[in-house]
Amino acid sequence: MPNCRLWVAEDRTCKDASESAHDQRLAETLLTNRDRDRWSRYRPLEKKRQFLSSRLVTKAVLNSEFGTNSANLFVDTMESGRPMLVDSRGRQVASISLSHTGNMTAIALSDIRYDLGVDIETVQQMNARAFGLSFINRSEYDQLMKEALTEDPNAILAIWTLKEAFWKALGGPQDTPLGNIVVEYRNASLNIDDACMTRKGKPLATQFFGHGYSFPGGLSNYSSLNVPESEISAFVGCVVLVDTELV
Ligand SMILES: CC(C)(COP(=O)(O)OP(=O)(O)OC[C@H]1O[C@@H](n2cnc3c(N)ncnc32)[C@H](O)[C@@H]1OP(=O)(O)O)[C@@H](O)C(=O)NCCC(=O)NCCS
Prior knowledge:
Layout: E1 4-10, H1 21-30, H2 33-41, H3 45-66, E2 73-77, E3 83-87, E4 92-101, E5 104-110, E6 114-122, H4 128-133, H5 138-146, H6 153-169, E7 183-186, E8 189-192, E9 202-211, E10 222-224, E11 235-243
Parallel strand pairs: 9-10
Antiparallel strand pairs: 1-5, 2-3, 3-4, 4-5, 6-11, 7-8, 9-11
Helix pairs in contact: 1-3
Bound molecules: coenzyme A.
């Protein structure tokens, strides 16, 4: 993908059931005032941990990406929930998107010229038809049904991650429910349909990633990640890069 870096991390530390002084200290040092306030209000504890763990991982990623300069970089959160990577003067230094599932965190980074979104989901047993009906629109459903994708949990999950990633890349607009985002499956590639372009940006690239995952009929824009001894047997995710100058 042009100008885009993806990191996937798994927290394998054993956590007991109570909040520790260590968590408190981490929150004090890692989080901006706004994010510390969010963190303190998170319930249940698992969600609270997930949030803190994602910020800890992000710090390590920023250290790898920006070296010593990373000491002055912070992930802050806009009112909409969109994360922003800023320096100590509050200036945006790169585009960032985050997603969590279980003890995993996906972090995507790109140049500020692009907006991007990432989503990661654990592969699980589910009623594909019922889940699909909650976010796939009628015309899209007919097209996907022809490819026999609507009955397959893995296919439905990939479509969900694509829509979520695109939704995040657009900044999570209230006026764009997932049902209004249309995907197409053509030449073994799953993408956002050009017909649902908004004035907010044009998808430039879509890349799926996963582990222990397969898509019915194959997915040419998919990369398999090697995650040895993962506690999660299978996951799938998607990154969408949007060019804000190509609208
Ligand atoms: C907000 C939402 C994307 C979170 O998804 P999720 O699967 O629960 O959680 P994920 O871990 O994948 O994503 C959470 C991250 O999304 C990011 N996010 C939240 N709001 C965002 C926004 N407006 N723009 C971009 N990114 C956003 C944040 O980084 C958040 O992580 P953080 O709180 O640690 O910073 C999702 O709940 C949502 O509302 N999706 C849109 C659904 C929709 O349109 N529904 C309408 C009816 S179909």
